């Protein structure tokens, strides 16, 4: 019954898995070969392709490198990046590319950033800062 409790996340992961499998097949790599080149286990990669697991940004980057495709494409497919909004892509990519952050820190920053974007979108046309332009300065 609880086939996909995560709803849209399951759909995103499934399309990611399908996309990865298409890329792997077109690169003429076996599952085992790609897993070895990406530095992940064969069963884990199989689970990603079947939509059972959602890989981290770091794992996606390793897979993209092994497939010789853009990591950004995989981030979009995995739902980590949303380029349709036209906002933020470069910030998200910078966070994901920062080797000084742990995976958990990267995900936390991306969640906070996304929540700010949602908040701003919900406020609509009000683009004025809530604090005055001189807030924090004593002139």
From TrEMBL:
Record protein name field: Helix-turn-helix transcriptional regulator
GO molecular function, one term: DNA-binding transcription factor activity
Classification via CDD domains: HTH_XRE
Entry annotated with the keyword DNA-binding: yes
SMART domains linked to this entry: HTH_XRE
Superkingdom classification of source: Bacteria
PROSITE patterns documented for this protein: HTH_CROC1
Originating species: Nocardioides donggukensis
Domain HTH cro/C1-type: 20-74
Cellular-component GO terms for this entry: cytosol
Keywords, sorted A to Z: DNA-binding
Record bears the keyword DNA-binding: yes
């Amino acid at each position: 019954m609880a086939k996909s409790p995560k709803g849209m996340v399951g759909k995103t992961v499934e399309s990611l898995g399908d996309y990865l499998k298409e890329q792997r097949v077109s690169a003429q790599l076996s599952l085992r070969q790609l897993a070895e080149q990406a530095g992940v286990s064969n069963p884990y990669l199989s689970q990603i392709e079947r939509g059972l697991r959602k890989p981290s940004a770091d794992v996606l980057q390793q897979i993209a490198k092994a497939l010789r495709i853009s990591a950004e494409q995989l981030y979009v497919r995995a739902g980590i990046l949303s380029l349709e909004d036209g906002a933020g892509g470069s910030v998200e990519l910078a966070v994901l590319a920062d080797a000084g952050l742990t995976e958990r820190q990267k995900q936390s920053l991306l969640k906070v950033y996304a929540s700010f974007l949602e908040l701003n979108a919900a406020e609509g046309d009000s683009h004025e800062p809530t604090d005055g332009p001189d807030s924090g300065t004593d002139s």
